[in-house]
Design brief:
The protein is mainly alpha-helical. The protein has helices spanning about 40, 45-55, 60-65, 75-85, 100-115, 130-140, 155, 180-230, 235-270, and strands at about 25, 120, 145-150, 160-165, 170-175. Strand 4 (about 160-165) and strand 5 form a beta hairpin.
Length: about 300
Amino acid sequence: MVSPPPSTPGAPAGGTVTSTGTVGWLPQNLTLRPFMTVAELLGIDRQLTALRAIESGSVAVEDFEAVGADWDIDSRARAALDSAGLVSLSLDRPVGTLSGGETVLTALTGLRLAGDSVVLLDEPTNNLDRGARQRLYDTITAWTGALIVVSHDVTLLELMDETAELYNGSLSVVGGPYSAYRAQHEAEQEAAAQALRTAEQQLRREQRQRIEAQTRLARRQRYARTDFENKRKPKIIMNQRKAEAQVSAGKLRGELDAKVSAAQESADEQSERIRSDNRIIIDLPDPHLHSGRRLAELRSATGTSVLVQGRQ
């Protein structure tokens, strides 16, 4: 998950973010003021107000400083809105009269006008209808700058040049869109599964060899006890052989245990490479419904049966 820049609300409590250029950010939930205008959401209200004042005869230095080099900001903003599918959208229109999709596209257009070095988009297609999503896809396809997009929208992820996944505290990057990541992920998981099978076979082999060796060792020890009890050889020789056998048995057990431990560690290591992504855990607050009442209805687009389990 990409965190917002330090200057934005919701910045991480720890760590640092370093950038050599400017960073723009489109949050997942836009914070809008009542009666905010389209120009304000685009971030051009200051330049636009100063430009209109100059056109009305103002010679104030602060107005010229506010405009800077953006003398064509009005026409550039309208052209950018048109290219995003927001044709004839008035810059003075209250944002509260826009749909959710129009609001997100307007905010994205503002980031495009700002020309930041890097722009971060946090789940930009959430709550957009099909038409707004397509216009957003078109806008991102035509984007000429650097974009970092956090999303679960597979169609959007197919537009990316690189795909990064944050999993278990580690970030991995794959060149290409989401389909390239999926292909590599599946290949890695297949290789991990094969490596796990091989490691488990080796573990069973080492365990079997330890049992066989311990069985042979126990048999020798029984023969040795019988010889000792029957006094078939001089006592000093038998005591010496007993001591040597104990040392040899201890060494053998240590070697066998070490091999089994190494095989177990290898199997555990390979097992950790196997991902369990087929479970979805949803932590819901207590709905305070009586037993037997319907809380939610889940439907599978593929017709797959789904088992839902909950804690009692």
